[in-house]
Every structure is written in structure tokens, then in C-alpha cells.
Design a protein that fits this description.
single chain, alpha+beta, 4 helices, 9 strands, globular
Length: 232
């Protein structure tokens, strides 16, 4: 069974005005319907620091949700708590509503364009055999150069179109993994599916288009996993 370990969405913008960080943090908490009601963290980042470094961090009190605000993006993270939240289905509920509310905040309150969106699922598959043996057999022809690996990784980039409308890069990463408690147990496979709208085609993402793209991306992830690894 494939389990969801974490999920992330990124709303890319040209530049955010962070002169009043406390006000923006308050607006985000309000837009989240108080889901992100933990005490916000305002980081003392120098003005010349890279724009992708977070300046504001807000979290839910149970730390399932985290929102990072940078100069050029807002990232919304989800970390499941308990087995009932380890399915990709869970992100189509409260998480999606929270993402759409953040979109409305940017579009309606701040009049900021969102030309790109990124969606990432990090998953874990437990196997009945060594993940290194599995990867070598399934994806790589074993040779004297590649055999008895301690770790194996596969990275692949595909260019696809979601809903016959949004052109995206899909980056797939498959990495053999080991148990933290027992490093000799390598019967785990880490799978990362990263779907980003292409930077060379700027879109005008509003609430409706983000919902369409998000649902199409999650459906694509589900179909990919079911086709190659069975049940979610």
C-alpha cells in the first residue's frame, strides 16, 4: 500500500510586498478560517537574501499544515497525522479549501497575479522484498556496474498537459529507502511526484483554474500510482 508522507503546493508570484509582515500573517490566518492559528514566525531575513527563502511561517496548532511566505511564492504544506490521513484523497478536502482561500487572498485582496503553480506528493511504498532488488529488477538491467546497491535512485522528467489545457513538467523520483529503526531493512520505496506548470507559459491562475489544475494533478498522481503500484 502506498502511503502519503507529505504534500505541498506552491503559488508562484512576481513579488510580494512584505513591508507589513505582521499584517500579512494576520490576513493569512484569517483567510485560513483560523486553521493556521498557531503563533506566526516572522524571520529576520536580510533584504538581499534569495527571494525563495521564507520570511513568514504560519502553522496549525497540530502542525499538520504549514504556510511559508517568501518574496516570490507561497508554499502550503500538509503532513498527515494518523493512518486515516495517509491517502491522497485527503488533500481534496480541507487542504484544497485552504489553498483556494490563500489564492483568493492574493488575487482579491492584494491584486497579485499567479502565473505558475506547483504540486508535490511524497509517498512511501512498503515492499515484501528489498527495494534495491525491486528497483534493479523492475527498472534497471542489473550488471557488474550496478549490482548489490545500497541505494538506487531514478529521476525522470516528462512534459504533459493536464485537462487538455495546462502544460506542466512532471518530475518523478523513485528512491530506495530503509527503516530508521533498522537500517538493514530496505523494504521501502520513496516516491516523489512533482507537477509544476511550465515557466515558459505564464498562466493567470485564479481560484477556478487552480481548483481545476489541482484536481487534475491529484487525479494524475492517483492513476500513476494505481497503474504501477496497485492500491493507494
Amino acid at each position: 500500500m502506498v502511503k502519503l508522507r507529505s504534500f505541498q503546493s506552491a503559488l508562484f508570484v512576481a513579488v510580494l510586498n512584505l513591508e507589513n509582515k505582521l499584517k500579512l500573517a494576520s490576513d493569512i490566518i484569517s483567510a485560513s478560517k483560523n486553521i493556521l492559528e498557531g503563533d506566526p514566525t516572522i524571520l529576520p531575513i536580510p533584504p538581499d537574501a534569495p527571494p525563495e527563502i521564507p520570511r513568514i511561517i504560519t502553522k496549525s496548532k497540530d502542525e499538520r499544515y504549514t504556510c511559508n511566505v517568501s518574496l516570490n511564492r507561497i508554499d502550503l504544506f500538509f503532513k498527515p497525522k494518523g493512518r486515516d490521513e495517509q491517502s491522497l484523497d485527503v488533500v481534496s478536502g480541507e487542504y484544497l479549501k485552504l489553498l483556494l482561500n490563500l489564492t483568493s487572498l492574493l488575487k482579491e485582496n492584494f491584486k497579485i497575479a499567479i502565473p505558475r503553480i506547483g504540486i508535490v506528493a511524497n509517498l512511501l511504498l512498503e515492499l515484501s522484498e528489498s527495494s534495491n532488488t525491486y528497483v534493479l529488477r523492475k527498472y534497471i538491467k542489473e550488471s557488474s556496474l550496478i549490482s548489490e546497491t545500497h541505494e538506487a535512485q531514478i529521476h525522470a522528467l516528462n512534459k504533459i498537459t493536464l485537462s487538455n489545457k495546462i502544460k506542466v513538467n512532471r518530475r518523478l523520483r523513485i528512491i530506495t529507502s530503509r527503516s530508521a529503526e533498522d537500517p538493514s531493512n530496505d523494504k521501502y520505496l520513496s516516491i516523489s511526484i512533482d507537477i509544476n506548470s511550465v515557466p515558459e507559459v505564464p498562466y493567470d491562475f485564479d481560484r477556478e483554474l487552480i481548483q481545476l489544475t489541482f484536481n487534475a494533478a491529484v487525479d494524475h498522481m492517483k492513476n500513476l500510482i494505481k497503474q504501477h503500484y496497485g492500491e493507494l
